[in-house]
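Minutes, project check-in
Item: structure for the 194-residue chain
Input as provided by the requester:
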Amino acid sequence: MKMHAKRWIAGLGLVIGAAGAAQALEVGGLKFDDTVKVGGKELKVNGAGVRTRIVVKVYALVLYLPEKKDTPAEVLASEGPRRFTLGLLREVTGDELGQAFLAGITANTDKAERSKFVNQLAQFGDAFVSISTGKKGDLISVDWVPGTGTVMSYNGKPIGEPMKDIAFYNAVLKIWLGDKPVDSSLKPQLLGKG
């Protein structure tokens, strides 16, 4: 009898331990972690949604922050590390991705602002060129790590060099959170309102 009780307690411990593990969030049919570690800090999902162009689902996007923010200004002023992860929902070339990111940055920043991070824009473009063709389910994560800069990875492997300016990271976030977001229905979702 005592042996059965020990097994039951051990089994209960496994169940409780598994329940405490990171849960998966499903967005656009892709699975994302509920929490991630960036710069040694745990980040939680702030919001998530799918970018649709006309009727085609292009990518799923998840924004992670240290604590919940529900306005673009709060997100952009957020202290500490941040991450967004983009999961492709169709095949696309790295060049197409780079051009789309550049167009979104251009639409949501002025010339004077962009002139401050011309080199980082070039580095960002080069990182996308290193992706020949992205396949459905591929993941691109872009982190802000204080003291290091903007760090990119493709399917968990680093691409490009760190880009130091927080203003550049915020310019990238403005693609979805700026005054002219690339997808107006995605903006409120990233802010946890949709």
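Outcome recorded: The longest strand covers residues 41-53.
No further action items on this chain.
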